[in-house]
TrEMBL record:
Protein name: Right handed beta helix domain-containing protein
Gene3D superfamilies named in the record: Single-stranded right-handed beta-helix, Pectin lyase-like
Biased composition annotated in UniProt, kind: Low complexity: 417-435
Lineage: Bacteria, Pseudomonadati, Pseudomonadota, Alphaproteobacteria, Sphingomonadales
Range of residues in the leader sequence: 1-22
Domain Right handed beta helix: 112-293
Stretches the record annotates as Disordered: 413-435
Chain segments annotated as transmembrane: none
InterPro entries the UniProt entry points to: Beta_helix, PbH1, Pectin_lyas_fold, Pectin_lyase_fold/virulence
Amino acid sequence: MKLLHLPVLAAICVAAPGIASAVTISSAAQLASALKAAKGGETFDLAPGNYGTLLIQSRRFSTPVTFRSIDPSKPAVFSGQSVVRDSSGVRFDAVSFHMPNPGSIKEAGKALALYGSSNISMSNVRAYGSLDGNPQNDGLGIYIQGSSGITVSGSNFTELHRGIGISRSTGVVITGNMIHNVRSDGVVLAQSENVKISSNIIRDFMPVKGDHPDGIQLWTAGTNAPSKNIEISSNLIVGKLGAQMQGIFVTDQSGGKLPYSGITIKNNTVVGAAWHGITVHHTSNASVTGNTVVTIPGSNNTSWIMMRYVSGVMSGNTAKSLPVSDSPNLKQANNKTNTISSSLAEQAIEAWYQANLATLPDPDTIAQSPIGSNDPTVNNGFNTPTPTPDDPVLLTNSAYKMVAIDDQSVQQNDAFSQTSQQLQQTTTGSNTGTNNVLSAVPEPETWVQLVAGFGMVGWLMRRSRSGTRASVG
């Protein structure tokens, strides 16, 4: 076995705090030795290269241990299904997690999985799949299960089934990330609380027939408790014709037996989504404010902001349609309808950038550059890991199917009900579920230009920071 492909095994012990030190590492064997001896506070400066599969198990550092690439433009790569289990006090900075085509484990494969761990942070990280141009054969980026105090910031997720999955966890922050060219979901969450998902860019999905693609999704399928105290704020979600996803989708598949509470959805911008620009069901003490949803020309659906069985506040939102039903305790104010317009979509994207420049990472450190064939992982391969048993909440086909079925029920019960006459007046054709939004529709030239302009993230941010007004397209 080649040293580059050895798993990095952590000693099974409880570490005492130590004196901070920096150690330069250039091989998997060196890293394994250094990690085994770690007491807490160490920084492992990783030279470019493939370090194989990372396993940190039963290590609890009161002063965090940091894994950091020496050269962020040539990040160290952990290849395979890396795992942090029953551990705490770990930081990852400017490293890559690569899950090549997971083969027989398919969507269950994960580039990095956290189980029962706490105080873990990931910044300027890249998580990606097979890089064959097809995210439909890839696994999940980062999976967080039964964990607390987790932060993912300024990172890049691409060519994956889902970007980030959160299950039965608390105190999770997902902020300032780019999630793109994925098959199904940007961020999916179940049975978790005190989670903040903010200032992320989620775009360019490639779903397959039968998927329920969402920018951000909360569900209760397969759970025994709902999520609560969740903030979804200042995210930019952009879809494209022929492969549209829902924007923000919060529904209870138990039919109201597991209602959410304390859900805040504010200042998000959703452009070019399918029917569910923003949809919230079965939620008490909700706050849905200041969101903008724009339907793009050529779409065969109207993107709405929909509330059903919701109490709380709905104010200052804008969308082509804003249907509300079965929500007598929902206070509504200053919600407005808009038009279907390419220029309006462009303006909404630019406005989001202008409002979020101060909180977004610098374009040189967010790892936004495309991952090309020169990435060392592409040619070096990895040792296929033994699949790890997972919480079925986010991974089972049955749970996923329940969400798709629920989506169809939502459309049947709301889109054509007595309480949604406004929606019927502003849409044409029948609403038949996700198959409808996957239909190939020729994109207008104006929308192609818009998406191309949207891709120039670094250029926009640099111009705006220099005091020059940015434009899109």
